[in-house]
Design brief:
The complex is a heterodimer of chains A (244) and B (72). With 244 residues, chain A is mostly helical. In chain A, 72% of the residues lie in helices and 0% in strands. In chain A, helix 4 crosses helix 7, helix 5 packs parallel to helix 7 and helix 6 runs antiparallel to helix 7. The radius of gyration of chain A is 20 Å and the shape is globular. The N and C termini of chain A lie far apart (51 Å). Chain B is 79% helix and 0% strand. Chain B is elongated and about 60 Å long. Chain B is an all-alpha fold and 72 residues long. The chains are: A mainly alpha (244), B mainly alpha (72). Chains A and B meet through helix 3 and helix 8 of A and helix 2 of B.
């Protein structure tokens, strides 16, 4: 009886080091993305009022960038908090590496977004509230890297970086989720369009969902893989430094 | 010659032979249907395979370094 009540504390550190070297989820990412890139071109898409035409398929590539970015930045802020509770090099490496690849995804989302917008809305940057919000969010995270890069003391860098990371993460929500929905937006979900895609996931066509969700998982896993490579690199470099 | 480059050469030859075949029968070729959208699909898939091969090779290199580090 006592054993059942006794708190089970999963050791995340061992789980992580174990998972990093496993291959199945890396293969899963490849399979899901191959599926996305093949079936994403085949799948029947809704015609709507025919303004989007075939470019609606960008949903499988542009939108998962933002989903991936948010998941990676969420992991980053979790490790920032973990670092503040337990300051180890490992926690800091996780936090910074995930923030790094999250921002790569964000920048890719911004570029693909303006590329799409050029043909959809008439210009690559129309000052749409969501475009501006995304740009602001990315700039706030850029400051995170500037802040980290400006300090030589590793402990100070990690601690101030972790505190700033928490601030940056909580700026992400207003800039991407709240502010663009309060005014008129060219993106779905702004004032004047029907429903909120953040809450009502049923708006998407059923055929498109069969590609969209695997795409989100696949792209996110790719981001996680690249992050783990960065983490392993940082930890190796750290080990080498301490050996010398 | 390792397996991966052999795979890519095989893949490329496969595409080449399919285009040679297509030139004799231009109308019935899948690559030329629907406004040649499947050409784009092919390009995307090739990029994807290349990208994953590259990330995988980096992963292997880091794994090797880690093993060397453990032996020290």
């Amino acid at each position: 009886m006592i054993r059942i009540i006794a708190p089970v504390s999963p050791n995340f550190a061992t789980l992580n080091t174990y998972m990093i070297r496993k291959y199945w989820w890396k293969l899963l990412s490849f399979v899901l993305l191959l599926y996305t890139c093949v079936y994403g071109f085949y799948v029947k898409v809704p015609k709507l009022d025919d303004r989007l035409q075939e470019s609606i398929r960008n949903f499988f590539f542009h939108v998962p960038m933002w989903f991936g970015m948010m998941i990676l930045l969420l992991v980053s802020v979790i490790y920032a908090i973990r670092y503040l509770r337990n300051p180890t090099i490992k926690n800091d490496a996780y936090s910074s590496a995930f923030a790094n690849s999250g921002i790569v995804f964000g920048v890719l989302g911004l570029i693909t977004g303006s590329f799409w917008a050029n043909y959809q809305w008439g210009s690559p940057w129309s000052g749409d509230p969501k475009q501006n919000g995304a740009a602001i969010a990315i700039l706030i995270y850029m400051a995170y890297f500037v802040l980290r890069g400006s300090m030589n003391d590793d402990e100070k860098k990690a601690r101030i970086g972790a505190v700033y990371n928490i601030f940056a993460f909580f700026m992400l929500f207003p800039t991407l989720w709240i502010l663009p929905r309060l005014t008129e937006s060219l993106h779905p979900g702004g004032e004047g369009s029907e429903g909120n895609p953040g809450i009502n996931g049923k708006d998407m066509d059923i055929h498109m969902r069969t590609v969209f969700y695997p795409a989100v998982i696949g792209w996110t896993l790719l981001g996680v893989w690249i992050s783990t490579l960065k983490i392993r690199y940082i930890l190796l470099a750290e080990q080498k430094m301490s050996n010398e | 010659m390792n397996k991966i480059s052999l795979f890519f050469i095989g893949f490329y030859l496969l595409i080449c032979t399919s285009t040679i075949k297509a030139q004799s029968l231009p109308e019935q070729d899948i690559m030329r249907s629907n406004g040649k959208i499947f050409v784009v699909m092919g390009v995307v898939v090739i990029i994807l395979i290349g990208l994953f091969t590259y990330v995988n090779s980096i992963d292997r290199k880091i794994t090797r370094l880690e093993k060397e580090n453990l032996q020290k």
